[in-house]
Amino acid sequence: MDDRYNYPPNYPPRNDLIAEDFVTIQTPMDNQENMSPYIYNPTPSQYNPYYVPTPTPMVPSPSPSSVFSPATPTGDINTDPFYSSDGIDDPFAGEPPLLEELGINFDQIMQKTLAVIIPFKKTEQSILHESDLTGPLVFCFAFGMFLLLSGKLHFSYIYGIGIVGCLSVYFLLNLMSPGATSITLICTVSVLGYSLLPMVVLSGLSVIFNLSTGVIGKFFAITAVLWCALSASKLFVTALALQRQQPLIAYPCALLYGVFALLTVF
Asked: What pTM does this model have?
């Protein structure tokens, strides 16, 4: 047999060596059934030059698929790295909803729309001071689109008259209101925009019927103007806590909506 399997080599005997300093190694030549590879460290010990370490089995390296495969959440609270019970690890936990950041509140839109549809319904004063422009923009765009379907391109007139009318009503309301209360320009635009809803209905009727001829068209136009003026004046009186001044506020509002009615009828 080859000399490389004879451990330890034939050196002169030493009396300071004990039996634990030698390790019997079973080589692949001695046992053909166990052919697992071994890694040997040929560096001798600093205390015993004839010491041979215990063979260590070779550990296979992980496959590339297991290294680069993403971890999947297990759903366990203790072991799942994606689970967060208190939301501290979530960077978007404290962020408000997207609709709230955009200033869109469907509850307020519904309440103000119902306040315009039913002018005699009691409205809370708190919702009137909210700067909600979603409904007015939608109603103005719908008003212009109905006029466009009836063959009238009046988008510039709608926005121009609307801006002048909102500024005029804003200054008038601040002059009429007591010193302790006031109204903002955005609140004025919001109330006048929501009160445009009956005029939107009138423009929708103009697509189907010809309102410029006959008594019925003029009746619908006058009804829409009075409806818009009544709704706007009621909301302004509620927001500013003005008593017995609703006719004074309804008159300039009726003039503003009368111009929109003229754009719709003629």
From this structure: 0.62
